[in-house]
Amino acid sequence: MNVDAAIAAVAAIAGCCTGVIAMLAFRWSEREQAKPTRTSLHTDAVLPPGVDTVLSVLRSSAVVLDEADGVVKASSAAYALGLVRGGKLAVDPMLQMARDTRRDGEIRQVELDLPRRGTGRGDALAVSARVAPLGSRLVLLLVEDLTEARRIEAVRRDFVANVSHELKTPVGALSLLSEAVMDASDDPEAVNRFAGRMQTEATRLTSLVQELIDLSRVQNDNPLEDAEPVRVDELVEEAMDRCRQQASSKSITMAVGGIDDLHVWGNRSQLAGALGNLVENAVNYSPARTRVGIAGRRVPASGGTMIEIAVTDQGIGISEKDRDRIFERFYRVDPARSRATGGTGLGLAIVKHVAASHGGEVTVWSAEGQGSTFTLRLPEAGAVRDRDAQRDGAAADPDDLDGEDGPYDTFNGPAVTHHHTSPDALRAPYPAPEVLP
Q: Which of 20, 121, 202, 239 could form a disulfide with 275, with the two C-beta atoms 3.0–4.6 Å apart?
């Protein structure tokens, strides 16, 4: 009995100890859970109310640093730019700005050029960084990406410089020629010669100013606001009339084919100007007694049917190094030859903008010594073709023939579609051209 009582007493003591230990463990666990974590300190207790919401809607990259330079809050854009890595600010100049601001409370701003990380590209990332105190312990860093703004500003400066240079050339020539005419007032032959030169320079100046106006218009206007179905054969006829005299003087044959029953959707004047630039270039840069071909065809595309208008010449061709730049404003493959033909270097830039604004594109295939083919690809005005088929015997839909169609009734073409044509595709047979006088 004494043994049994002892065992029972020991068991009771052990049970009490276990209960006490369990209660202490439970209370310790509750205290640990009640302690603020690092995350809760950064996002709830440390950040002032509403700051998190404001930072989430800012366009700038935002980073909040604590007193130990740890990242309390960072936007996704900050990670994308490579500003934050491993919970630390990875840009030393910005980190030093944050420390200085934490010390004296002054707001600081600086523009920096940062290397692009992970892209393999050599150009820098231009940013503007602004640091300001946030409360008594935190520092706010806002970073704005200026790379695109810098690029646009550089393009604008180059454009102004090019325009100034191009305008100074004919204006300076006119000034000198006018002085020559005054000095040769008693020599009728010299006056006639200088007057002819003045007329040439004046024509070049007029063309340059007009093309600058055209380029500004196609860049700023929305051509589809006044869009309509346009017959391709009418566009080709206007383009040929524009340079028929030049072609005749050089004995260049104009050949046309495959343009019947083709319609594109867009602004008639802009499309006529773009195609006219392509045909005029083909004539101006072709040797005498050669042929310029203009061919059209309908091709399927992912977004809908497209119309291709190809302008082919038998000129000297374009080298591979120049092919990627010929659509830049004022870029000339041969500046001396361009000035001799009256070119301004803006024609192909206008064609590029017109094609893009109409939901199409312009491509080029060229080989030195073999000539060039410029292909203007535009969305088809699909409803016009459907009506032609209906008039030929298909059942007509009265809603489509009421003559009061809106833009959604008359345009079945695609949205903007960009695709590139290989040289083999450009050599694909177009309809046989018809030689015109």
A: 239
Percentage of the chain with pLDDT > 90?
15
Parallel/antiparallel/unpaired status of strands 61-65 and 228-231: unpaired
What is residue 304's three-state secondary structure? coil
Listed in sequence order, the residues at least 6 apart from 429 whose beta carbon sits closer than 8 Å to its beta carbon are: none
The amino acid that residue 395 corresponds to is A
For 120-139, what is each residue's pLDDT tens digit?
A: 455 678 888 999 998 778 88
Confidence of residue 17 (pLDDT cuts 50, 70, 90): low
Task: Give Cα separations from 217 to 214, 265, 350 (angstroms).
Answer: 5, 18, 10
Alpha-helical (H) ranges within 184-267 are 188-220, 232-249
User: What whole-number distance in Å separates Cα of residue 52 and Cα of residue 44?
Assistant: 9
Q: Is pLDDT at 325 greater than 60 in this prediction? A: yes
For tokens 């068991």, what's the residue?
11
The Cα-based distances of 96 to 47, 63, 79, 131, 265 in angstroms read 22, 14, 19, 10, 58
Alpha-carbon dihedral sign for residues 222, 226, 228, 230: negative
- Per-residue pLDDT tens for 385-419? 554 455 555 443 433 333 333 322 222 333 323 33
Global pTM exceeds 0.70: no
- Asked if 146 contacts 153 with a C-beta cutoff of 8 angstroms, the reply is no
Of 290, 291, 277, 292, nearest to 376 (Cα)?
277
| Burial 313-333, CB ≥16 within 10 A → b, else e | bbbbbbeeeeeeebbbbbbbb
